[in-house]
Amino acid sequence: MSDAQSSGTSSPNETRPVRLRDALRKARIEAADRTGVVVDLRDAEVARLEILNEALDPLFEQVPEQVDLFDRGISQGETPRLWVDVVAYVMMGRDKRIYRLVQDTRFGRKVLTESHDVPVMVDAVTDYIARRMVEREQALAVQPEPKLVETNEKRRGGSFWTFVLGFVLGAAALFAYAMFEALRNL
């Protein structure tokens, strides 16, 4: 055995094999650093959404209690969101500095407003709430009953006579066929 191998030291020309333990340790440190950055970004997003939420307090105080369309709150999932109602929420843009008012529709997400400024977003949410309240009023408005009852009664009478005519024509066709067969057999 050579002295280099027995002493446990390697010469600079020889490459030392990387140990899996060292590689795992390095990977864990890198993952912890990335996780720390992600947590800091998420905390910054939540803090900005809380600032907007506080700015919306006067608006939601003006909404009548009998209107139960709006349920405001911040969800702290993978993407933090400030919910306005069941289908609309404010989230932060990719740069984590821009507010984005989004509405989920049956055709996908629709961005209603984007801005860096809290007052602009308060105005956008105010307009959204006003539109939703008008939609609610229109849905609850009593519509006059249509006059389809008279036309349905006429149709019922017409359908009765159509049935009678069809019955008579069917009976006549059967009688004619029976007569034709009787004459043919003679």
Mean pLDDT value: 80
Helix-strand makeup class: alpha+beta
- Specify Rg, calculated over alpha carbons: 38 Å
Distance between the termini: 125 Å
Number of strands: 5
Major sheet size, sense and barrel closure:
5 strands, antiparallel
Please state how the strands of the largest beta sheet are arranged side by side: 1-2-3-4-5
Count helical runs.
Answer: 5
How helix-rich are the residues, as a percent range?
55-70%
**What pattern of helices and strands is seen along the backbone?**
HHHEEEEEHH
Question: What proportion of the residues form beta strands (DSSP E)?
Answer: 15-25%
Please state the overall shape, judged from the principal axes of the Cα atoms: elongated
Low-confidence stretches: 1-8
Characterize this entry briefly.
This protein has 186 residues and is α+β, with helices and mostly antiparallel strands. It has a domain at 44-140.
Description:
This protein is α+β, with helices and mostly antiparallel strands and 186 residues long. It has a domain at 44-140. It is 58% helix and 17% strand. It contains 5 helices and 5 strands. It has helices spanning 3-7, 20-55, 57-62, 118-140, 148-185, and strands at 70-75, 81-85, 88-92, 99-105, 108-115. Strands 1-2-3-4-5 form a 5-stranded antiparallel β-sheet, with helices on one face. It is elongated. Residues 1-8 have low confidence and may be disordered.
